[in-house]
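Is this the right way to post structure tokens for a design question? Let me know if I should format differently. Anyway, here goes:
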């Protein structure tokens, strides 16, 4: 079993297209662009097995175990220097099967 935890205490983002209105003259970010932090936990379970000459493992991976909501990435939007912030999916499950001959 593997557990991965990512912790962000707080962060600064711009969620609308008024990017220049969120900064003071000296570059200090105003409180409207400050966001509370988040913690994301991922869990990976693997079980190895052997059946005759066939070896393999089966795995279960859970991404964002506690269904945390936060922005995952940005992509360009209309207008100069504007970004569109995309929320991450909620809890996700993945199953894997690997066979070795």
């Amino acid at each position: 079993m593997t557990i991965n935890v990512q912790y962000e205490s707080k962060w600064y983002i711009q969620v609308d297209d008024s990017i220049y209105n969120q900064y003071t003259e000296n570059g200090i970010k105003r409180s409207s662009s400050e966001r509370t932090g988040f913690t994301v936990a991922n869990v990976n379970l693997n079980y190895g097995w052997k059946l005759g000459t066939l070896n393999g493992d089966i795995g279960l991976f859970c991404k964002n175990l506690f269904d945390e909501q936060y922005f995952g990435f940005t992509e360009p939007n209309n207008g100069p220097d504007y970004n569109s912030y995309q929320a991450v999916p909620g809890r996700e499950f993945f199953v894997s099967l690997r066979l070795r001959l």
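Format looks fine. Someone answered above. Worth noting: The mean pLDDT is 80. Residues 2-100 form one domain.
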